[in-house]
Automatic annotation (TrEMBL):
The chain crosses the membrane at residues 37-56, 77-97, 129-148, 160-181, 205-225. It is a multi-pass membrane protein. Gene3D superfamilies: MFS general substrate transporter like domains (1.20.1250.20). This is Major facilitator superfamily (MFS) profile domain-containing protein. It comes from Microthlaspi erraticum. Belongs to the major facilitator superfamily. Proton-dependent oligopeptide transporter (POT/PTR) (TC 2.A.17) family.
Length: 234
């Protein structure tokens, strides 16, 4: 259940992160004034995964192995816990960046101009993508190892199905959350957290909410991981 929150966070990296990026200055140099598409920002997740995997194998694991004296460096559940912690940090960074974007929009009088470009570099959004990419390395690989190695041999296909379903169910739960919050926050003529005009919306509130949920998921997973007894590999 704790890992489903990770799936909800994943849904933001392909939806609201992109919507954030569509409102800021996406030109990458003073000579090339054509803005890059906001959706291309998702490539930073893949790039961070490609860069961090060798770092994990060549640097992190040997250091962890020297401390824990375990062949893998850290246990599977410890890896998942680190990933969920990093995804929580990604939501915190996303909330802070969104707060800055809203402040910039107010400072330049763009609150009522939804199609105007907020004079803020798209580079501000890169850290939240990178953090999520690194979190993905820890969490998804850890989940794959856990569901493959800790279930009976005859149930491994079911275990892998559960691993793959986390992202799908997370997207579904994210849609439910957005619908409920949209209905609740738009009552009495108030501006919804997810208004089409992002300069009036409050994505930052939503990110803080997900950061809180991720923190609860992290704490609960750490608590249960301490008492988990691993099955011997067969």
């Amino acid at each position: 259940m704790s890992c489903l929150v990770f799936g909800i966070v994943y849904a933001q990296s392909t939806t609201f992160f992109t919507k954030q990026g569509s409102t800021v200055d996406r030109t990458i140099s003073s000579t090339l004034l054509v803005p890059v598409p906001a959706a291309t920002l998702q490539c930073f997740i893949s790039l961070s995964i490609l860069v961090f995997i060798p770092i994990y194998d060549r640097l992190f694991v040997p250091i962890a192995r020297s401390i824990t004296h375990k062949q893998a460096g850290i246990t599977t559940l410890q890896r998942i816990c680190i990933g969920i912690f990093l995804s929580t940090l990604s939501m915190v960074v996303a909330a802070l960046v969104e707060m800055k974007r809203l402040k910039t929009a107010r400072d330049y009088g763009l609150v009522d101009s939804p199609k105007a470009t907020v004079p803020m570099s798209v580079c501000w959004l890169i850290p939240q993508y990178v953090l999520y990419g690194v979190a993905d390395v820890f969490t998804m690989v850890g989940l794959q190892e856990f569901f493959y190695g800790q279930v009976p041999v005859e149930l491994r296909s079911l275990g892998l199905s559960l691993y793959l379903s986390i992202i799908g169910i997370g997207n579904f739960l994210s849609s439910i959350m957005v619908s409920i919050i949209e209905t609740t926050t738009s009552q009495s003529g108030q501006v919804s957290w997810f208004s089409n005009n992002l300069n009036q919306a409050h994505l930052d509130y939503f990110y803080w909410l997900l950061a809180c949920l991720s923190s609860v998921a992290f704490i609960s997973l750490v608590y249960f991981a301490k008492s988990y007894v691993y099955n011997s590999p067969k």
